[in-house]
C-alpha cells in the first residue's frame, strides 16, 4: 500500500523556486511593453483640511500621463469617489468611518493618499508628485488613547468623544459582577498597556493592471490575502461585471494580516488608470509608504478586576479596555472582539464581563496583524494569572491548573459571541496535558536550582509561561476544484492566497492521500480568480481547516467518479477497486488495473481521436452502446468541486514558556530557553507547523522586546524606516526552540485539523512580561519592554514589592 502522507514531514515543494530567486512577485510582473508607473502624494499632516490642490505644474511635465485628485474620480466612475467599503459592519460600530481612495476634504493621518500620478516611470511619477501644491488648514491631532479618551479634540467632527464603538458582553451584567467581586475572598485590580506595532513584510503592497479593450476585460495582479475580495471591490467601484475582472495573486512576500484589508486605494486607482489610459499600470509602494499608509495593530489600554478564592479559582473577572483603531475602521471591530473573547484562553471563570471602546486617533488605521487581538487578550489574562499567584504565594502553574477547562467538558460554551457571529464554543482540547508537557520541556520544576546557580555567578534569570486558545478556521466557506488530466497529472485550485505557508505542499499531501495519486503529480494553484472565482481569503489560521477540508472533499468526489468509470472499464465492482500510485486496480489483483490518466480520457467521451489516448473514448469505442456515454446526473471530465462551510470555528491551544537573563548594567534581555507546546488537532505536516511556530515566535519576540510605533504629539511617526524601527536580527531570535505537539482532533471538519498560523505570536508579550518580572522582582504592566524601558522601570520600582 502507498505510504500515507498526512502526518509526515514532507519537504516543501515551493522552496527551491523561491530560494533560488525564481519567485514571481507583483513587482516582477511583466505583461507588456511600456508599462506605466504610479506614485501617490501622501499627507504630511496627521490632521488637516484640504483648502486647495494645485496640479498645474504637473500637467505639462514630460512623461506624465495622468493626474488625479478626488475631484476627478467621479468622472472616471461614480462609485470610485465614494468612501471605501466598511468590510465588516457590526451593530456596535455606531460610528464607522472609512477613507476615500483620494482624500476629499480632510486628511486624518500622516500618509493618507491625496493625489495620484501615472507617468512613464517611477522617477518621473515621483518628481510629478513633488510638484503638486496643496494648501492646508492644519488641525490639532488626536494622538494616543489618552487623548482619544479625553475627547477634547475630535478626529471626525461627527463622532462624539472619538468613540467608534462600544461593546459589552459576558455571563454577568455590571450589577452581578460588582456583587461577585465584593463577595470574593480575594480581589485584585490591574492596569495594563500594550503599545502599537505593525507587521513589516519583505514585500509591501503592489498592484499591476491591464485593460483589454477587445475583450472588455480587466486583469489585476496584486499582493493580497483575498484575491476574490479585491475582484469584487474593483468590479463594483469601476462599474464592471464581476466576470470582466480577473485578479491574480502571484507569490506574496509576507502578508501577516496587513494584506487582508481590501481594497487599498491603489487597488482601485491602478486598474482605473489602466482602463482609462489603455496601458499597463504598476504601483509598488516604498518602505516609508508601508509604515505610514498601510495598517498597524496591538495598541490597547486595559483595566482588569478579578475576584478569586484561596486556590486561585476565578470567581469574577471584569475587564474593560480601550482599543486604538486609528483614523478609520475598514475592518470593523474584528480585533477588539477577538481580544474580548479570546482573553479567556483555556480558563473558565464563574462570571465574566467585558466592555470595550474602540477609539479614533489621527494615526494609521488598525487592521488585523498576525495574532489579531489575541496577543492583547492573552496578555491581560496571563498577567492576571501571575498576579493572582503572587498574591496567594502559589506556584503560577498551580493557579492556571485550578482554572482549566477539563478534557471531559468539551464542547465548552464560554457564553460569548465570537468574531464570526457564532457561539464561542471550544470544540476539543486537553489543557492539563499541555501544561505538563510545557513544564517538562522548559524545566519548570528544576528552575529554582538553576536560578541559584546563576545567582552564584552574579547572573539574574527569570522564567515565565503563558497559555492561550486560538479560534481558527472561521467561515463562511472555502472551495476547491480537483481535475485529473489525461496525462495523469492532478490540477488543484483553491481560491485563498498563499504567502509562504507551504500550501502547495500540504494541499498536495491531502489530495495524494485521498485520491490515491502520486504526490509528485499534484499541482496546486491558489489566489487566481480564473481558476477558482469563489473564495474568502487567507487569514485567521484558516487555510488548512477551510481549504484543506474543501480540497479533501473535492478529491473524494473525484475519487468516487474515477472508481465508477474504472469499474465499468475493468468490469469490476466499485467496492473491489482501489487507487494506488495513480493506478486504479482490483484489490488483490494488481495486474487488472487502469491509470488515472486513462480514466480521465474515458470520463470525457470525444467524437474525435486527436491523439493516441483519445482513441479510447470516441463514440464507437465507449462502454455499453445501449446507454449514453455521459450519465444524466454526471458531466464530462474526471474532476470534482466542493465547498466546506463550518458550523463554527475550531479552537487550537498551546503554552509558551521562556527563560531569560536580564543584564544588571545594560538591562538587555537575553533568551536562554524557549519552549512551545501546541495543539492544532491532526497534524498534516509537522515540519510546516513547526516552521509556522518558529516564524510566529520570531514576530512575538520582536513585538515583546523591540518593535513599537513611536508617534510624536503632532502625529508624526518618528521611526518610519528600518534605520529607526528596531526589528530584530536572527541574533535576537531564539537559536533553538523546543517544540512538542499534542493532537486533540477537531470534530467539526473531516480532517480533524485546527489552525496553526498565528499561534507562535499570541503569548509572546505575556510570557516575556512574566519572565522579566520573575527575574527582576518588579511589576511589568506595559509591553513591549526595551532595555531603556527596563532601566527606567528599575528606577521607578526598585523598592516596590510584586505582590
Automatic annotation (TrEMBL):
<dbReference type="InterPro" id="IPR008274">
    <property type="entry name" value="AldOxase/xan_DH_MoCoBD1"/>
</dbReference>
<keyword id="KW-0560">Oxidoreductase</keyword>
<dbReference type="GO" id="GO:0005506">
    <property type="term" value="F:iron ion binding"/>
</dbReference>
<keyword id="KW-0500">Molybdenum</keyword>
<feature type="domain" description="Aldehyde oxidase/xanthine dehydrogenase a/b hammerhead">
    <location>
        <begin position="20"/>
        <end position="140"/>
    </location>
</feature>
<protein>
    <submittedName>
        <fullName>Carbon-monoxide dehydrogenase large subunit</fullName>
        <ecNumber>1.2.7.4</ecNumber>
    </submittedName>
</protein>
<dbReference type="Pfam" id="PF02738">
    <property type="entry name" value="MoCoBD_1"/>
</dbReference>
<dbReference type="Pfam" id="PF20256">
    <property type="entry name" value="MoCoBD_2"/>
</dbReference>
<dbReference type="GO" id="GO:0043885">
    <property type="term" value="F:anaerobic carbon-monoxide dehydrogenase activity"/>
</dbReference>
<dbReference type="InterPro" id="IPR000674">
    <property type="entry name" value="Ald_Oxase/Xan_DH_a/b"/>
</dbReference>
<feature type="region of interest" description="Disordered">
    <location>
        <begin position="619"/>
        <end position="639"/>
    </location>
</feature>
<dbReference type="InterPro" id="IPR046867">
    <property type="entry name" value="AldOxase/xan_DH_MoCoBD2"/>
</dbReference>
<dbReference type="InterPro" id="IPR016208">
    <property type="entry name" value="Ald_Oxase/xanthine_DH-like"/>
</dbReference>
<dbReference type="Pfam" id="PF01315">
    <property type="entry name" value="Ald_Xan_dh_C"/>
</dbReference>
<dbReference type="InterPro" id="IPR037165">
    <property type="entry name" value="AldOxase/xan_DH_Mopterin-bd_sf"/>
</dbReference>
<dbReference type="InterPro" id="IPR036856">
    <property type="entry name" value="Ald_Oxase/Xan_DH_a/b_sf"/>
</dbReference>
